[in-house]
Design goal:
- It is built from six helices and no strands.
- By secondary structure, the chain is mostly helical.
- It has one domain.
- Helix 1 packs antiparallel against helix 2, helix 1 packs antiparallel against helix 3 and helix 1 packs antiparallel against helix 6.
- The longest helix is centred in the N-terminal third of the chain and has 78 residues.
Length: 226
């Protein structure tokens, strides 16, 4: 900031006070202008960050909806297979007959078929790293933070389910039994019941994530000009 010295000596107290007041006003003006520029910069950075986050969340929402549709269809298929085996066993059909029914429904293709979306978070990471997230209003920040926290929780649950699938359900053994036609009805029922429960958990998790992501962008859309 440049301060211009008086060209003539200050002869009276009034001249001194007048010059002093001009200096103070110059300083206050400069500080106010600097604060305004900084505020404008922060607001601009926050708006850019918000737009990028909104676009990323919408992309993730689309991915979640696609996975939810596929997982729901797979859940219905597993439910149907499970219900058929239960009905056969309740009817006390011979194991060979139950086995034939199982092979007819699941022999050609049998797996968990769990589909999980690819969830991006780069826009959020950048906003946090360059501090533009801290310049957004609190309500918007809360929505975004909740959305990305839900993504992390969903990913953790999916990882746990995958570990359970590969280590505790003997799915590979069951697939091998189906391929050789040596499946045991009650063992198959236990496995398909576990798979159904796991698939149901995945569907419920995706529904929760879908709602949280939708909530994160719904308010913004409602405020956007028509």
């Amino acid at each position: 900031m440049h301060l211009e010295l008086p060209k003539e000596p200050l002869k009276t107290l009034g001249d001194f006070l007048k010059h002093y007041l001009m200096i103070v006003l110059s300083i206050l003006t400069a500080l106010g202008l600097e604060a305004w520029i900084e505020h404008a910069h922060h607001a601009h950075a926050a708006e850019i960050g918000s737009r990028q986050i909104e676009a990323e969340i919408r992309t993730n929402l689309s991915e979640v909806q696609g996975s939810l549709q596929q997982d729901t269809q797979q859940l219905q298929r597993l439910d149907k297979i499970r219900a058929g085996v239960i009905q056969d066993l309740k009817s006390h059909l011979p194991d060979d007959v139950v086995k034939q029914h199982i092979l007819a429904q699941a022999g050609g293709h049998f797996d968990l078929g769990m589909n999980f979306p690819t969830l991006r978070h780069e826009a959020w990471d950048v906003a946090v790293a360059n501090q533009s997230a801290s310049w957004m209003d609190a309500e918007r920040m809360q929505r975004y933070s909740a959305a990305y926290a839900s993504q992390r929780d969903a990913l953790t649950t999916m990882t746990e389910n995958t570990t359970l699938l590969t280590s505790g359900m003997h799915l590979a053994d069951m697939v091998a039994d189906l391929q050789t036609g040596e499946v045991q009805p009650r063992e198959f029922l236990h496995t398909v019941s576990q798979m159904t429960a796991l698939q149901q958990q995945a569907v419920n998790g995706l529904k929760t994530l879908e709602k949280r992501l939708d909530d994160a962008v719904a308010n913004q859309l409602a405020r956007s000009p028509q």
